Request: fold
Amino acid sequence: QSALTQPASVSGSPGQSIAISCTGTSSDVGSYNFVSWYQQHPGKAPKLMIYEGSKRPSGVSNRFSGSKSGNTASLTISGLQAEDEADYYCCSYAGTNTLVFGGGTKLTVL
Amino acid sequence: QVQLVESGGGVVQPGGSLRLSCAASGFSFTTSGMHWVRQAPGKGLEWVTFIQYDENTKYYSDSVKGRFTVSRDNSKSTLYLQMNSLRAEDTAVYYCAREGSTRAIHAFDIWGQGTMVTVSS
Reply:
């Protein structure tokens, strides 16, 4: 399984909105609505932000939203805040009982 | 509180073995599917393996199939990862995580703090 493709870095100013893309294939992202997103601060464990493509776990801010079009999933963060600065990873069910992650995106809040 | 605590990491020579443990508390471990996910130093996340709540179903990534074995002891609320034939590329922080979806494996909703495994001579 090849890793999903994410931009290495994105940046935005406080209050702005940004989107992080996660591109897979018709064998993973394109075939299933089972995409999740994780936030990871340095030295910390990842935190689930989005699951089933667009659902937020309890306690996750509604500034975080997920969507999908074709083979590409996206995480959008609106009203950027300093504490959003972190690494973000996507993950997709890839069929045959396997999972594949993206390479990760470093978000910088300017 | 809800918690996963990994242990058992350390330094091992190539070809060696190591067993990781993950103690769960604060949620129903006996009805939860569980994963191991790893992260090499400075790199991204990589899914390793999944075990269903009753141990009847196990899945592995191609990179560890045949070398790693996942198991669990529900009476002790503990998840295990037996790692054999270790390679330098297995060097990583190993996290245990709970599967949070009831529809398909893909949502890791509870994570441990991780345990470091270093494979080096």
Notes: Residues 23 and 87 of chain B are 26 Å apart (CA to CA). Chain B touches chain A at residues 37, 44-47, 50, 59, 61-62, 95, 100-101, 103-109, 111-114 (CB under 8 Å).
